Amino acid sequence: MSTTSEQLTLTESKLRQSWRLPALVIFLAVVWWLLYGQLQNIADWLTYTLIGLDPHSQLGESVNFFLYDVPKILLLLTGMIFLISILHSFFGPEQARALLGGKRQGVGNVIAATLGGLTPFCSCSAVPLFIGFVKSGVPLGVTFSFLITAPVVGEIAVVLLFGLFGWKIAALYVASGMIIGILGGMLIGRLKLERYVEDFVWQIEVGSQEGIVYKPNWDDRIRNAAASTKDIVGRIWLFVVIGIGIGAGIHGYVPEDYLVDILGSGSWWAVPAGVLLGVPLYSNAAGIIPVVHALIGKGAAMGTALAFMMSVVALSLPEMMILKRVLKTRLIVIFISIVAIAIIFTGYLFNLVLG
Q1: Is there a contact between 86 and 115 (Cβ–Cβ < 8 Å)?
Q2: Which segments of 213-300 does DSSP mark as H helices, in order?
Q3: pTM of the predicted model as reported, rounded to 2 decimal places
Q4: Contact status, residue 86 vs residue 222, Cβ threshold 8 Å
Q5: Cβ neighbours of 277 (radius 10 Å)
Q6: What ranges do the domains of the chain cover?
Q7: Per-residue model confidence as pLDDT tens digits over 196-248
Q8: CA-CA distances (angstroms) from residue 180 to 5, 58, 235, 289, 306?
């Protein structure tokens, strides 16, 4: 009897211990969700109440932008990497390759671009998923199809464009964004640029040793995911802060009238100039579409304004700063060049079709 009682006690103790980490993760996930939902209110309070800056001043806008976006991106980075690491413990590299790699050229790119269009992420927010895909063995070109499409196409962009410009403009924008993502990713894939990805990104935990298949329990999955998240976030958090700091400064101090003077000129060089101007800026679709609407109202051509918008959301400087930690400079330059050329071509096509 005593032996049976001891076994029951031991079993109950193991059950209690096995739920401690999952319960802690659930608790932290609730805290994460509540905190994420209050980031704008916290940033407003810090900027305008605690620091006392004027909401309508350039400095106030820049500081508010910085205090909102830094924790937002770091929270997304931490949450997404952790979640992807948990999923990765169930869903191995070969399965990821089978799903997104595609048996035919382009199939994986289409799937990834579609997934990008369904995820409401800005360019910086899409980077954690990009890293997770690469670590899971998804082909590099396929991951770039996701990285290009995710910030450009999304339900917010579609709804706002439809409301301001009608369904034809919204449909053209979505179609062009998807095509740029698919073709851009396919081209990067064909160039075989994997050697320009930093070595630590490729480091994938092995699930077997000496022919023995290792099946982790939930504690193991959580501990491994936490370690992976700590490692990746620890490597790139400073680049996030620096990149967003630069973006915040530009966000607050670049005057709208300056953009109108260039984009509204009607010259042949207005489209490439708009793309070049958009690269150092940083915003998501919801933030930049009202600016685009104002630019068009002041004389900018539709294609020029939309090319500027695509450049802002797909090629932001903060995104490049974050990617610099996981990609080598040559690959970033190739990525920017391919997407910029595609956006310029799209801008001219829009001006021709809609002019």
Answers
A1: no
A2: 218-253, 256-263, 270-278, 285-297
A3: 0.63
A4: yes
A5: 17
A6: 38-354
A7: 887 776 665 444 444 444 567 778 888 888 887 887 777 667 766 776 776 67
A8: 66, 34, 30, 19, 14
